[in-house]
Amino acid sequence: MSEVKPSIQLFSYPTSPYAQKVGCYLKYKQLDYKFVAVNPLNNAEIRFTRQRQVPVLQIGEQWRKDSSELGLWLDELYPQKPIMPVEQADRAKVLLIDRWISDSLIPTIFRRAVEWENSVDSILNGWKLSRAVSDATPLPRYVRLMWPWGIKRAPFIVNMVKALDLTESIPAMTARLQREFVEHLGSGPYLGGQSEPSLADLSAYPIVVSGHLMGMRVKNSLLDHPAIVDWSRRVQSHLPDNPLLVPDRLLMRTHL
Ligand SMILES: N[C@@H](CCC(=O)N[C@@H](CS)C(=O)NCC(=O)O)C(=O)O
User: Fold this and answer.
1) Which ranges of the chain have pLDDT less than 70?
2) What is the Cα–Cα distance from 227 to 231, expressed in whole angstroms?
3) Residues 194 and 231 sit within 8 Å (Cβ to Cβ)
4) How far is CA 79 from CA 74, 135, 163, in A?
5) Where are the beta strands (DSSP E) in the chain?
6) Is 53 a pocket residue for ligand 1 (Cβ < 6 Å)?
7) Cα–Cα distance between 194 and 83 in angstroms, integer?
8) Residues 75-91: pLDDT tens digits?
9) Domains present along the chain, CATH in parentheses
10) Secondary structure of 125-142 in HEC code, one letter for each residue
11) Is 16 in the pocket of ligand 1 (CB under 6 A)?
């Protein structure tokens, strides 16, 4: 008798950077999964979890949240194409870098959405995001229109941005993140000096490239650093052309 595999469902808005991390773990591991778009206005699709945070991953009858935990859970259940190294010291290094991605790299994306460096660019970027969200769960026209201003007020975004050092300018912040990224690469070729991509690379990759692939207008990008572009190309070779959760037709570019 053939073994029935439990179904895997990833619930999120397509634009959530934390969900994009989990999408890359699934894609790297070549696991079949269904992406279930969550309507950000009522979170109806995750009501069964009795909480509001995405991403949520459901495997068979079980569900869990928190992107990094979800990576570890996937590695436990599906050990082929591991995303965590075997040695304890390497595991600790990878988890530390993943923490840096969740707590430093991702919040700075939200900072740019709140603190507009260039109003025209920020409004156009916000509309691009609302188009991707609305493509998955249709939103009323006025919500789409007001999206760039709505993002500025979303409580989880406001709280995340408050925790950052806002006295540091955005160009200085980008330069620091580039420096820290290169330090985390160490002797490479992958983050933490690993010889194969790990959870840390798969967490960072969609964050580094999504603006570029979606055709966002971004000044001061991590991709302005040649070592980060080289690293992105290495990670890209292990993933499908579209590493994001938005459909191909909404991407402006497929490569670096
Ligand atoms: N620690 C979580 C953070 C997830 C998170 O902040 N998700 C945001 C969307 S990007 C969210 O669900 N915000 C709505 C809320 O928390 O009510 C993870 O790594 O998954």
Assistant:
1) 1-3
2) 6
3) no
4) 8, 34, 36
5) 8-12, 34-37, 56-59, 62-65
6) yes
7) 11
8) 999 999 999 999 999 99
9) 8-77 (3.40.30.10), 88-250 (1.20.1050.10)
10) HHHHHHHHHHHHCCCCHH
11) yes
